[in-house]
Amino acid sequence: MAYNFYVNLAYLLGAVGFVWGLRLLSSPDSARRGNFIAGLGMGLSIIAALFAPMEGAANNYGWIVGAMAVGAIVGYLAAKKVKMTAMPQMVSIFNGLGGACAVVLAGVELYLFYHGKRMLDTGGLVIILLTLLIGAVAFTGSMLAYAKLEGLVDDRKVTFRGHNIVNNLMLLVTVGLGVWLCVEGKESGTTLPIVVGILALIYGFSFVAPIGGADMPVVISLLNSFSGLSAAAAGLIYGNNLMLVGGILVGASGTILTVLMCNAMNRSLLNVLIGGFGTSGTSAAKATGDQVVKEVTMNDAAIQLYYSQSAMIVPGYGLAVAQAQKVCKEIDDLLEANGVDVKYAIHPVAGRMPGHMNVLLAEADVPYPKLLDLEDANSALPNTDIVVIVGANDVVNPAAEDDPGSPIYGMPVLKVWEAKNVIVLKRSMRSGYAGIENPLFFHDRTRMLFGDAKDTLTKLVAEIKTL
Amino acid sequence: METFYQFFNTNLILIYLLIFTIILGFEVISKVPTILHTPLMSGANAVSGVVIVGAILLVRESAPDDYFSLILGFLGVVLGMVNAAGGFVVTDRMLEMFKKKKK
Q: Are A222 and A254 in contact (CB under 8 A)?
């Protein structure tokens, strides 16, 4: 009796650890402690699972301890070795593995059921199929997200005409077969569950395929929420309340982040999922051809920056690609030394995961009070002497404000054109992910500085030092 | 419909737990500052590694000669553990960078 009590207490404390840890994670001062407490909760939960009383169980502790050692070492090393710029990829992989674990569990349960080693009613089958479906989407979806972030897959090459129709059909067929399986039970034969599993895995890929570029933060937090839900569904299989609580918490947090990201773009989740960018709003104004961009020389740019009162840096995904965050900080230091007030304007969907820019700049030792969010940045911009845009495009596009035909019309953007001068660092005149023209580049106050972000910034540092 | 009523009545506590956890989840996490979006996501991701508990239970109850279950269960424990351990460590690394800046 007492033994049972301690195991259940450990599960309960584990669940409290998750809730409390996530609570602390949402405030900067306590975040690190929060992560630690959630980790502690995980430790307690694992211990409880190891020692929970199970009648007649063979336990097979050798297998479990071996697997835990392998997993812990691989996870620890991967997490320690990964570069900060590769963080979105790492988080995607970890997330996918959680989903894969749920798929494996569902697979074994189905196997046991079909071999008469497990009795299941319709409800039990439904739960297992839910675990399989959600876990599979989280798994293959995250893997494709990883491949996209790593640049292994070209966004535009994995989609085809009518992709969304095929996707919806596939989902319908998968769910339909799943329902059939639940109704038929064992009568359906072993082929059916395998087909459902494979379809679910393919659907995961196909579901993420049309989503890319600037929509990555949305899909990553959505997949995060899926892996939580698959853990919760697996909790129902084993009648384990702790898994249910942990999974649902992750599902809820992922959902909130997803909604936040969607709001930041003023688009609905559905619109993001069908890859709406660049496909709608065909009436968007095209460049008229007689518009010319004005370039600025390195020397002029350096002078403008060095002798300004206030400067604002607007980082985007280009900063991450070029890994230019440290050079950025160097410029910041040089300017600060000359009394320039340097701030950073962070758009909520800049980069490829929620809060991407914050992590990168933190790595470069930029103090976080210098990072302004959308609202603060927009109220500070009219009084800013010079804005430097490093690898951002769609989040500074004035068409979102004044061109109702533009696909991004209505998306809140950084109103950099209200500042006195704008310098845009850009590799070429190619349009951003949304594939639309950015009138900002043709604006009176805008000057372009072409080249790789890191290269350009390094040259700029050298130039400023000569002043 | 009868089955549904019965399901509802017998699983009432579970349904309470489900609904209250959803509400709790939304309450606990809403109003996160942008700066913490990545660590929160990564920390939550680590928590979803709780699925390892299921994998452990599965291996424990498998027959010692049921190699199909054992091998897949082993794989499940490895996957869950990488997710959990890696997730917490990576989150800690990120938060450590934020911390440093405060001084």
A: yes
Which of B47, B72, B96 lies at the smallest CB-CB distance from A32? B96
What is the span of the domain harbouring residue B50? Answer: 35-96
The answer to whether the beta carbons of residues A255 and B30 sit under 8 Å apart is no
pLDDT in tens, B24-63: 888 888 778 877 888 899 999 999 999 999 999 999 999 9
Specify the 3-state DSSP secondary structure of A435. coil
B52 shares a domain with B20: no
More confident residue, A174 or B97: A174
Is pLDDT of A315 > 70?
Answer: yes
CB-based contact A35 B63, cutoff 8 Å: no
Same domain, residue pair B20 and B50: no
CA distance A358 to A351: 10
**A421-426, strands of its sheet edge to edge:** A371-372, A341-345, A310-315, A386-390, A421-426, A446-450
**What is the model's pTM?**
0.85
Span A235-247, average pLDDT:
92
Q: Which of A19, A97, A112, A333 is the best residue to mutate to test the B interface, defined by the most B CB atoms within 10 Å of its own CB?
A: A97
Is the CB of B82 less than 8 angstroms away from the CB of A58? no
Residue A81: CA count within 13 A, CB half-sphere:
6
**For the segment A382-436, what is each residue's pLDDT rounded down to a tens digit?**
999 999 999 888 888 888 888 887 777 888 899 999 999 999 988 777 655 556 6
Residue B103: inside a domain = no
Q: Is A365 a catalytic residue?
A: no
| In a shared domain, residues B40 and B27 | no
Runs of H (alpha helix) within A151-297: 163-184, 191-208, 216-237, 241-265, 269-273
**Which parts of A384-426 fold into alpha helices (H)?**
399-402
**Model ipTM?**
0.92
Q: How confident is the model at residue B100 (pLDDT cuts 50, 70, 90)?
A: low
pLDDT at A284 over 50: no
List CB contacts (< 8 A) between B2 and chain A. Answer: none
The answer for A 227-286 residues in CB contact with B (under 8 A) is 227-228, 230-231, 234-235, 237-238, 240-257, 260
Q: What value does the CA radius of gyration of chain B take, rounded to a whole number of Å?
A: 19
Confidence of residue B78 (pLDDT cuts 50, 70, 90): very high
Instruction: Assess contact for A443 and A406: CB atoms under 8 A.
Output: no
CA-to-CA distance for A327 and A344, rounded, in angstroms?
Answer: 14
Residue B20 sits in the same domain as residue B40? no
